[in-house]
TrEMBL record:
Family annotation (InterPro entries): AB_hydrolase_1, AB_hydrolase_fold, Pept_S33_TAP-like_C
Alphabetic keyword roster: Signal
A single MF term (Gene Ontology): catalytic activity
Pfam families for this protein: Abhydrolase_1, Abhydrolase_4
Residue ranges of every copy of the AB hydrolase-1 domain listed in the record: 109-272
Name recorded for this polypeptide: Alpha/beta fold hydrolase
Gene3D superfamilies: alpha/beta hydrolase (3.40.50.1820)
Source species of the chain: Nonomuraea aridisoli
Signal peptide: 1-24
Peptidase S33 tripeptidyl aminopeptidase-like C-terminal domain span: 391-478
Length: 481
């Protein structure tokens, strides 16, 4: 089963002065020509070895791949900028290949450094049992269903852990990833680094700031989540923004004759569809994921998110969503089959979940789930439900290695954030608001991770901040591009 293709994205005062390190680390790393397609001119690759378990530094090791684009004006070099990729499971080296053309100005003054985190090694070596879903996720309606789900997922986690030959299953938490990041810093010979973190990369970025605040020169965070305040609060922020996007969709549909629900109250049609689907699930078949059912909770969590976060060129996704809703209310759920059944399976794969459950992503019990559901209903009339990412971690068999807790900010520089006003700006602001003097730039349009999407206005602010440690004014918003 292809895992990555079906994950729904649930988806910054006086600063510390820049200083070049006294010692460079080239002698510690064996730089070589990078292999593969799309390698920018001048990129060199190396590898660093880190412990699988940082509590046993002399024990088993794992090798992480690095890449570097050296500063083009070495006499004016400030230091290094390390990319912290999202996913989790995204490859930072691929991110650097993608972003390099938009970061040429930054590269004048910095080495641009990327690495593939330990979870990419994990994904490359998953045994088959780790790709076998523990169940097909759906929202538990009572304690009995919740406990049955926990038992099924615990069994799947145990099977995956038992077949793991890397030792990584128990050590994919973001504190372990943060210690890897500092191993990269040491190997580079840098006293401090600047960082560009995106999406789930905000979790290891916060862990790094917790463990090594004196090693942070600057942080640019783009579309990140803020695990330190707890996943339930992040889920409510995400849901409130999704409800706003749903309102944009219904207004567009009302004004657009091509919308399959034009002339009706599209919101009312959707609410009736999801209510009926919870009472009488709609049978569907996916060419890839087989037979299953569309319940209302699955439609709200996966059906909506699979189409509406970005309307797409010519509003193609919104047109497709309206058509899928129109057909589903007539008993034909084929427009939702792949995205719903795919996500219901992927979010129950122990190999995928092992990368986040150690960051306390799961519900602690049925009481927390019921409370989250109640709060969600107050935030969203159209999309309220449980968080399927948290639901999948139900039954996690290990102690949570990186629990949610406040981030000490003493010694940290003000942070620059960026995010889409349609979605992830609220999450990013949740992160930057922790650190006095920080600013988040809004992007007035849909999208996720501005610097990887080539959005020039946020990129200019990021480059100015990272080079000069100058922040834009509070409330700065970039127009849609």
């Amino acid at each position: 089963m292809r895992m990555s293709g079906w994950l729904v994205a649930a988806l910054v005062p006086v600063l510390l002065a820049a200083s070049a390190p006294a010692v460079r680390g080239e002698e510690r790393l064996r730089w070589r020509e990078c292999e593969g397609a799309g390698v920018p001119a001048g990129m060199r690759c190396a590898a660093v070895e880190v412990p699988v378990d940082w509590a046993e530094p002399d024990g088993r090791k794992v090798t992480l791949e690095l890449a570097r684009l050296p500063a083009t004006e070495p006499a004016r070099r400030i230091g290094g900028v390390l990319g912290v990729p999202g996913g989790p499971g995204a490859k930072g080296i691929e991110d650097l290949k993608r972003a390099a053309g938009d970061l040429t100005e930054l590269r004048r003054r910095f080495d641009l450094v990327a690495y593939n985190p330990r979870n990419t090694v994990w994904l490359d070596r998953l045994p088959p049992s780790c790709l076998e879903p523990g169940t097909s996720l759906d929202e538990p309606r009572d304690r009995g269903q919740f406990e049955a789900l926990a038992a099924r997922m615990a069994k799947a986690f145990r099977a995956c852990r038992g077949d793991d030959r890397t030792g990584l299953f128990a050590h994919l938490d973001s504190l372990s990833v943060a210690r890897d990041m500092d191993a990269v810093r040491r190997a580079l010979g840098e006293e401090r680094l600047s960082f560009m973190a995106n999406s789930y990369g905000g979790v290891p970025m916060a862990a790094y700031a917790r463990l090594f605040p004196h090693r942070v020169r600057a942080m640019y965070v783009d579309g990140v989540v803020n695990q330190t305040v707890g996943w339930p609060r992040q889920a409510l922020l995400t849901l409130s923004r999704a409800e706003r996007v749903f309102g944009r969709f219904t207004a567009w549909c009302s004004a657009t004759p091509a919308c399959a629900l034009h002339g009706e109250d599209a919101g009312a049609v959707w609410r009736e569809l999801t209510r009926e689907a919870d009472r009488r699930p709609i049978p569907v078949t996916s060419p890839e994921f087989g037979k299953g059912e569309l319940t209302g909770s699955r439609l709200k969590s996966f059906g909506f998110a699979g189409f509406l976060g970005d309307p797409g060129p010519g509003n193609a996704r919104w047109l497709a969503f309206a058509d899928a809703v129109d057909r589903a209310r007539r008993g034909d759920g084929s427009g939702f089959a792949d995205v719903v059944l795919g996500n219901a399976a992927v979010w129950a794969m122990p190999g995928a979940l092992a990368m986040t459950c150690g960051d306390e992503r799961g519900y602690t019990g049925y009481e927390q789930l019921a409370e989250a559901r109640q709060k969600a209903r107050k935030v969203s009339a159209n999309l309220a439900g449980v968080s399927f990412d948290a639901l999948g971690c139900t039954g996690w068999p290990l102690k949570v290695a990186n629990p949610s807790r406040p981030l000490p900010v003493r010694g940290l520089p003000p942070v620059l954030g960026a995010g889409s006003t349609w979605g992830d700006q609220a999450l990013t602001e949740s992160f930057t608001r922790m650190i006095p003097g920080s600013v988040t730039v809004g992007y007035d349009g849909p999208g996720h991770v501005m610097y990887l999407s080539g959005k020039q206005c946020p990129i200019r602010h990021a480059i100015r901040y990272l080079i000069d440690l100058r922040l834009p004014g509070p409330g700065t918003v970039c127009p849609a591009e």
